[in-house]
Amino acid sequence: MTAENNTEKPSGARHMTRRAFGLGAGALIVGGAVFASRWYNISAQAGVEGTLSTPDAHSAAVSGDIVLIDIRRPDEWETTGVGEGAIPIDMRRDDFTDALLVETAGRTDTPVALICARGVRSRRMSRQLSEAGFTTIIDVPEGMLGSGAGPGWLKRGLPTVTWAAE
């Protein structure tokens, strides 16, 4: 062997590096697509059983047919306001269920609709409240900012009220 041959990389190692890079890039793209589809709630649908579109949720909340709960964070309420007719209760509160029971006068059969930014958190919280014994939980999958279910409360031009910390 000459010194020149000792410094060359075998062609298989070079291809393995390219292959590993390609696999890593592919995994990153797929992972990014999965993340984006969940973040924007791409597969959501409004108007199917157990859901409401934002205009329907607004109308039902204002008429008193449902209790509409905005489960986002206070910084989100401050940025966008709270949808007219909605009651802001941060879903991260330890006493979230108790606060919700106050709004429903202690009744677990009162129709409660949940709205968040894009419908991801409201879908998750809907399942949790159903498991906690609430019988009529409705998801608003468009959310305030829009999702696969529709443009959302703000882009539809539905009214909001300014939120201020108590």
What features would you describe in this structure?
By secondary structure, the chain is α/β, with parallel strands linked by helices. It is 45% helix and 11% strand. The chain is built from seven helices and six strands. It has helices at 3-6, 11-39, 54-63, 74-80, 96-103, 120-131, 152-155; strands spanning 67-70, 82-83, 86-88, 112-115, 137-139, 160-161. Strands 3-1-4-5 form a four-stranded parallel β-sheet, sandwiched between helices. Strand 4 (112-115), helix 6 (120-131) and strand 5 form a beta-alpha-beta unit. The longest helix is centred in the N-terminal third of the chain and has 29 residues, at 11-39. The radius of gyration is 24 Å and the shape is globular. The chain starts with a helix and ends in a 5-residue tail after the last strand. Mean pLDDT is 83; it is low at 32-40.
Number of discrete helical segments = 7
Report the helical percentage: 40-55%
SSE pattern: HHHEHEEHEHEHE
Outline the low-pLDDT stretches: 32-40
- Strands side by side in the biggest sheet: 3-1-4-5
Q: Which descriptors would you attach to this protein?
A:
alpha/beta, globular, 7 helices, single chain, 11% strand, 45% helix, 166 residues, two-stranded antiparallel sheet
